[in-house]
Amino acid sequence: MRVLMFGWEFPPHITGGLGTACFGLTKGLVKHGVEIIFVVPKAFGDETKEGFRLLNASDVKLDFRNRQSQEFWEKIQYMEIGSNLVPYVDPEEFETYVTKTKLSEKQIGESVFSKQYSFSGKYGPNLMEEVSRYALVASAIASEQSFDVIHAHDWLTYPAGIAAKEISGKPLVVHVHATEYDRSGENVNKNVFDIEQKGMATADLVITVSNLTRQIVIEKYGINPDKVITVHNAVEPVERPELEGVQKHVREKIVTFLGRVTYQKGPDYFVEAAYKVLQRDPNVRFVMAGSGDLLTRMIRRVAQLKIATKFHFTGFLTGSEVDMMFAMSDVYVMPSVSEPFGISPLEAMRSNVPVVISKQSGVAEVLKHALKVDFWDVDALADAIYGILHYDGLRKMFVRHGKTEVDNLKWENAALNIIEVYNKAVYK
Does position 238 have pLDDT exceeding 80, yes or no? Predict the structure, then answer.
């Protein structure tokens, strides 16, 4: 089985769980003998390539004399990024992005249709332009490569997957790691929704990372339930002996939130719960690790609650910094409003950190040894944090059984389920 796979990011250059999931899944598939051509908009040269080919879309040259490709290229439309997508980037960049002047139609035509593109591979003001360009490049790649099935990760690559399917006639599998409803609630960006819906409708099969996401795909996007299959995410096993016994240099217990500081992740509930915990025990420090459009608001709220001396904002953390943060943490909290899956609790449990997660998360479907609360129930969230911090038997139980539970959630097992989806798409 040979797979043409489209992603938007790849470790170590990631902004969240999407790149991490793509890496783990790819490694798992390779272990089972699947050949993979993994395409990214921009490769930086330091990516880990273990048994598969990483193809840099920025290196691909286009031939507009190719009649078959021209038929697809003519359908490509440019769409401007919506302001509610800006949470993907740092708040410092938000000001710059939303004030940028829109491209004129002439500029759009000249920039989208050229012989070779240099992608940023980021979530910037020209995101939709890059999504369109990526689809153009995908059509060229699909006309040159040999493969059995196409696998496109998340909405950014769905147009690329559709292009590859139209050019090659091969079956398309789209992988839903998140939907616009997760990112924006009911205030969806119509452009993104339309891309998601078209991708799912065009695909031969749709993979969702949880049953929670599967229901959204069926109910909100109108996709036939028969072609929507859930394959839960996993976590990459990592041995970091150098982190054992790491010193945190503070006497207090540490409670950590790690993720984008956006509506979807529920950072405001974390702040409110922190205040309630500190009323009962002032010997606790809270850490919010990440960046996003709500960061400034969170800083202001912490100041209003007068808990700034017990609250720390780290900004975005890289892979090794994340491991260090978990090594210093006593509790990890993920109070997401809507979380398709959520790999970070698995990473925390892998590091022997007990976790509190929202019931509104896909990972809650697979974890037994985690405290689960409704994201909006700040009192229950505070009680759960306080309980783990103060009842040693409870903490030890979650650490011991949680580590064993997570060690059994392997990407190579998830990969077997993905291979079943490929076979169903190819041989149906």
Answer: no
CA torsion, points 9, 182, 98, 19, in degrees to nearest 10? -10
Under the banding of pLDDT at 50, 70 and 90, the label for residue 71 is low
Q: With beta carbons less than 8 A apart as the criterion, state whether 153 and 41 touch.
A: no
- Domains observed in the chain: 2-234+411-427 (3.40.50.2000), 241-407 (3.40.50.2000)
Write the single-letter amino acid at 202: T
- Alpha-carbon span 58 to 118, nearest angstrom: 5
Give the span between the Cα atoms of 257 and 239, in whole angstroms: 22
- Residues 6+ positions from 226 with CB-CB distance below 8 Å: none
Q: Give the whole-angstrom CA distance, residue 325 versus residue 256.
A: 8
- Return the higher-pLDDT residue of 399 and 119: 399
What pLDDT does 67 receive? 52
**Length of the chain, in residues:** 428
State the virtual CA torsion across 178, 184, 188, 192 in degrees, nearest 10: -40
* Predicted confidence band of residue 47 (pLDDT cuts 50, 70, 90): low
**Would you say residue 15 has pLDDT above 50?**
yes
Evaluate whether 284 touches 309 at the Cβ level (below 8 Å).
Answer: no
| 160: Cβ contacts below 8 Å, ≥ 6 apart | 6, 39, 134, 135, 137, 138, 152
- Contact, 383 vs 203, CB < 8 A? no
Distances (CA, A) of 227 to 200, 201, 222, 233: 9, 10, 11, 19
**In angstroms, how far is CA 182 from the centroid of its own chain?**
11
Residue 123 has pLDDT above 80, yes or no: no
> What's the pLDDT at 187?
82
pLDDT on residue 120:
66
Q: Could you tell me the sign of the dihedral formed by the alpha carbons of 290, 180, 152, 119, in that order?
A: negative
Dihedrals φ, ψ of 176, to 5°? -95, 100
> Can you tell me the mean pLDDT for 17-34?
89
Query: If pLDDT is split at 50, 70 and 90, which confidence band does 231 have?
Result: very high
- DSSP-assigned states of every residue in 244-256: TT---S-SSEEEE
331-334 sheet: strands from edge to edge = 311-315, 284-289, 253-258, 331-334, 355-358, 371-373
> Helices 411-427 and 17-31: crossing angle, nearest 10°?
80
